[in-house]
Specification:
By secondary structure, chain A is mostly helical. In chain A, about 65% of the residues lie in helices and about 0% in strands. Chain A contains nine helices and no strands. Chain A is globular. Chain B contains eight helices and twelve strands. Chain B has helices spanning about 10-20, 85-95, 110-125, 155-165, 170-185, 230-245, 265-285, 315-320; strands at about 25-30, 35-40, 50-55, 70-80, 100-105, 130-135, 185-195, 210-215, 225-230, 255-260, 285-295, 305-310. In chain B, the strands form two sheets. In chain B, strands 1-2-4-3-5-6 form a six-stranded mixed sheet, sandwiched between helices. In chain B, strand 10, helix 7 (about 265-285) and strand 11 (about 285-295) form a beta-alpha-beta unit. In chain B, helix 6 packs across helix 7. The radius of gyration of chain B is 19 Å and the shape is globular. The chains are: A mainly alpha (about 210), B alpha/beta (about 325). The interface between A and B is medium-sized, with 29 and 35 residues.
């Protein structure tokens, strides 16, 4: 795996396409167990991010990811701004000084991102949050030695679907208690798009 | 969706410009942000007070910016907390060197963004303290949940902490006053109709003609319990009972009462609810020191109301009675 500045830009552009396409779906997920703005906020945030990084000159993945993180934090708002911002900021700091980023370093970055977001959100697994997608994906990366696009998508998808049966104890959905069961967590769905986009960009580029 | 707006994505920017244009003597906008600041900020030797949250709760939070209450309010997108960079700009704009106090409602997004802003401000050498308001008795407060939401009771925190800061209280004293309000205020809301977030374009939930939701928040989210529609007296009784289950009020207690409209409730109906709430408190021998009836923390055009009760001691009575100058909140 050779992950460079240009791959990062493509990754973010692909995430943005998915956020725009699924804006209403994400909002509908949030309508049942949240305050119905997740799709609106994520699509606004990633559009602003793409506007910022597209056409920019970047030497490393780390530089791109830093701008991505800062833009998400300043444009998304809500809980998603600081949480998704933290994920990309941790990737940026772990990748610092690396060009390209290899598989091992990428795995480290994802693990740091997961730890960072758990700390920021004071969340752990099983609470029906984006952690429930990021955690199994990080596990998958650690168990393998090379990038496996299909497996990553499969792991993220199953993990997202598993949030459906969980009882929310963190975030806005926690106020709905038992009523939160039976619906996919919106932050998990967004996280699934992030990994699906990554797989599409890296496919064939092991 | 039928609303008096231009572009659904521009509602907050358009609103902020309109607010500042209405009160140019008192308020200014920090350029490039959705933060509204007292014209005379930073006020020398005074602790700066910053609050904020999603838009759609007007007059919260900008309506409380002015002498005796907040120094700045930062607006986020509709029902979405403001971002750390904008909160930081507001903190910097109101710091006179005496420190800045943040009033945060207990929502994950608000807590995260304010926390990050506080970390950034501290890194710049500004002293920051904060309080998290969690007055809503409709939702459970336990280790396994995010805890209770902050709703209309937040306005009473703005008022009392604001008075303490205005009379020269230190950062520590402002924090203590705010924490005491949080410990003594309880609220609960109900709704007859949902609201429509402009960018979403459709109502957040549906209610039949004969239904109401008890225990709603202020973000168009549905309530904790859906019930058959009832009379104003029954609604008032149900809401106050839920508060009493959580905090005991006994004969001789002194309280402030806030009957808050959620955006589309006629004043007539708020006063009808107030009539019953006052009657219930009188029966218990609870003395009402001050009553606020009106719209303080709305949820766009939601129809419904919330009831807040704040237990007062002499020190807080004085702070509650101190003059307040924001154009949209006089006391």
């Amino acid at each position: 795996m050779e992950f460079q500045a240009q791959d990062t830009i493509q990754w973010i552009e692909k995430i943005n396409e998915k956020m725009q396409r699924n804006k209403e779906y994400l909002t509908s997920l949030d309508q049942v167990i949240g305050d119905s703005d997740h799709g609106i906020n994520m699509s606004r945030g990633f559009q602003e991010t793409v506007n910022k990084i597209s056409g920019g000159t970047y030497d490393t993945a780390s530089d791109v990811l830093k701008d991505v993180a800062m833009t998400l934090m300043s444009k998304v708002g809500g809980a998603s701004g600081p949480l998704f911002g933290t994920l990309f900021l941790k990737l940026s700091t772990t990748f610092k000084g690396m060009d390209p980023v290899d598989y091992h370093a990428f795995t480290n970055g994802l693990e740091e991102a997961l730890n960072g977001v758990m700390q920021r959100g004071k969340a752990t697994t099983g609470e029906k949050t984006l952690v429930d997608v990021w955690s199994p994906v990080v596990e998958h990366f650690k168990q393998e030695d090379e990038f496996q696009a299909d497996k990553i998508v499969e792991t993220a998808k199953t993990a997202m679907e598993n949030t459906k049966d969980m009882l929310a104890t963190k975030g806005r959905a926690a106020y709905f208690k038992e009523k939160s069961i039976g619906h996919i967590d919106p932050g998990s769905a967004s996280s699934y798009y992030i990994f699906e986009a990554l797989a599409e960009v890296m496919e064939g580029g092991k | 969706m039928k609303k008096i707006i231009n572009d659904p994505n521009q509602v907050v920017q358009d609103m902020i410009k309109g607010i500042v244009a209405a009160y140019p003597e008192e308020l200014r906008q920090i350029p490039g942000t959705m933060a509204i600041v007292r014209n005379d900020a930073p006020v020398k030797d005074k602790v700066g007070l910053v609050s904020g949250g999603g838009s759609g709760h007007e007059p919260a939070h900008s309506g409380y910016v002015g002498k005796g209450m907040l120094d700045a309010a930062v607006a986020g997108e509709v029902f979405t907390s403001p971002t750390p960079d904008q909160l930081l700009e507001a903190i910097k704009a109101v710091d006179s060197g005496s420190g800045v106090f943040l009033i945060i409602k207990n929502y994950t997004g608000d807590v995260l963004n304010f926390e990050m802003a506080a970390e950034l401000a501290e890194a710049e050498g500004i002293q920051v303290e904060s309080v998290i308001v969690n007055d809503d008795v409709a939702v459970e407060d336990s280790d396994a949940t995010t805890g209770r939401r902050g709703i209309a009771g937040t306005v009473l925190v703005h008022k009392i902490a604001g008075a303490m800061a205005e009379q020269g209280g230190t950062l520590k004293e402002v924090k203590a006053a705010a924490e005491k309000v949080v410990a003594n205020v309880r609220s609960i809301g109900m709704a007859l109709t949902p609201c429509t977030v402009p960018a979403a374009g459709k109502p957040s939930f549906e209610l039949e003609e004969n239904e109401m939701e008890i225990g709603i928040g202020i973000h168009g989210e549905s309530g904790i319990e859906r019930k058959q529609m009832a009379s104003a007296d029954d609604i008032a009784t149900e809401l106050t009972d839920k508060i009493f289950e959580d905090m005991a009020f006994s004969s001789g207690d002194e309280v402030a009462v806030m009957i808050n409209g959620l955006g589309s409730t006629p004043e007539m109906e708020l006063y009808i609810v107030n009539r019953k709430v006052q009657e219930i408190l009188a029966e218990k021998g609870v003395h009402v020191h001050k009553t606020f009836v009106g719209e303080f923390m709305t949820a766009l055009e939601m129809t419904g109301c919330s009831v807040s009760l704040l237990k007062l001691d002499d020190a807080h009575k004085t702070l509650l009675d101190a003059p307040t100058h924001p154009a949209r909140f006089r006391s």
